[in-house]
Design goal:
3 domains; alpha+beta
Length: about 400
């Protein structure tokens, strides 16, 4: 299946998309995987088939990215899925772009000047890969209305909860999101949060003994959890890691959440068998299997590869515009192009035939195809006859790492 056929199949289910926008998106996704240099409007004109103004005008048009990517996800992923929410720093100079400011960059380990997007992605647990769902730019004025950044992120989850529930009941986030008001808002959305608790988080065992007779409230708690000295009456082994880590699960009360939760404590050991470190993972669903909880949290990291590939290969940080609408269109185009490439060239293959997914090879292949088509056009060569020549495949795959 070609990228145009896949795009048409999805867009045909979206009645609000006009014919012109459908044709433009068919062209844009192929261009996003073919271009060389920065993915800005000037380079789009140089390597695409429209002029710069046409690209600028179409990037200002609204498009339902969530509905588009939802169709792609449902078609190419297996039922065992999780939704991952993760903000990402995007470099941007100047002071006139909406939303520009100081944001945390995980790669640099510090705050940097630029933009931030809050992206929802979907991880296929069985295939162990992530596809983009939708991204929204973080706007400081909107965060101020919510009261805090955590409340703002929680409002994003509440806003999209109905669509997220179609994909999965589980929302996975890193340790930054293990605090209120984010946890409260996720619980309001009827999604089950999976996250890592911060070191030093207070947890309490449930009291399992005999209650005293007479007046007064029954005893609820039986002491505080020490992650290096687990109570075997409550914690049971649930999984073993690849590096010898041992995971133990229990239902405990998380003070900061003000509710009972399923907790998995993963202990790492040194050469002498002593506990070197202990990490705590938790879910707002107390009945969740501990092994699944740990597996789902580890799978969260697949979303980071979407950001990496979009920044390196599809120009996530290259937008020339200072318009909020154009920025939103650009961010989602760059991330969706990676998902389309993964669906067409990796997920569509039988599992036993898949090699490691390589955006570098896919970009090389599409660029070779673009250049060959230009040669055919410039020299008046019949492309259908030329593509039947055995030499075409060698030129088509020229420069690929895994050719």
């Amino acid at each position: 299946m070609s990228i145009e056929t896949l795009t048409d199949t999805i867009l045909s289910k979206m009645s609000e998309v006009s014919k012109w926008q459908r044709d433009f998106l068919r062209h844009l996704f192929r261009l996003a995987l073919s271009f060389r240099g920065k993915f800005n409007f000037l380079n789009m004109e140089r390597q695409g088939c429209y002029n710069e103004l046409t690209y600028r005008q179409n990037f200002e048009r609204s498009f339902n990215w969530l509905a588009f990517n939802l169709e792609l996800i449902m078609a190419y992923t297996l039922p065992e899925r999780i939704v991952v929410f993760d903000p990402s720093y995007v470099s941007k100079s100047g002071k006139s772009t909406p939303g520009v400011g100081w944001y945390w960059s995980g790669c640099s380990g510090a705050k940097k000047w630029g933009l931030e997007i809050g992206a929802f992605s979907v991880v296929d647990i069985v295939n162990h890969t992530a596809l983009h769902l939708v991204a929204e730019q973080t706007l400081p004025e909107e965060a101020q209305k919510s009261g805090s950044m955590l409340a703002y992120y929680g409002d994003l989850v509440l806003e999209k909860a109905a669509d997220l529930k179609k994909i999965s009941d589980f929302l996975v986030c890193d340790a930054y999101f293990s605090r209120n008001p984010f946890v409260e808002k996720v619980r309001q959305s009827d999604l089950h949060l999976i996250t890592r608790l911060r070191d030093g988080a207070v947890m309490r065992y449930p009291y399992l003994g005999t209650q005293k007779e007479g007046r007064g409230r029954n005893k609820t708690f039986a002491g505080r959890v020490n992650v290096r000295q687990l109570d075997e009456q409550h914690f049971t082994p649930c999984a073993v890691g690849n590096e010898g880590e041992k995971a133990f699960e229990a239902k405990v009360y998380v003070n900061s959440w003000k509710c009972w939760a399923k907790v998995v404590v993963v202990q790492q050991y040194d050469d002498k068998g002593q506990i070197k470190s202990a990490k705590v993972f938790a879910s707002t669903l107390p009945t969740l299997c501990g092994a699944d909880l740990w597996l789902y949290y580890q799978a969260r990291f697949q979303s980071e590869f979407l950001f990496r590939d979009a920044k390196q290969f599809t120009g996530l940080e290259h937008c020339q515009s200072r318009s909020g609408k154009a920025l939103d269109f650009h961010f989602n185009t760059a991330l969706s192009a990676v998902s389309i490439a993964k669906a067409l060239h990796w997920l569509s293959l039988p599992a036993e035939q898949r090699r490691a997914f390589s955006m570098a090879d896919i970009k090389t292949q599409y660029f070779n195809e673009l250049m060959l088509d230009r040669f055919f056009s410039a020299y008046g060569i019949n492309p259908h006859r030329a593509k039947n020549n055995p030499a075409y495949k060698s030129l088509f795959e020229f420069g690929k790492i895994a050719a």
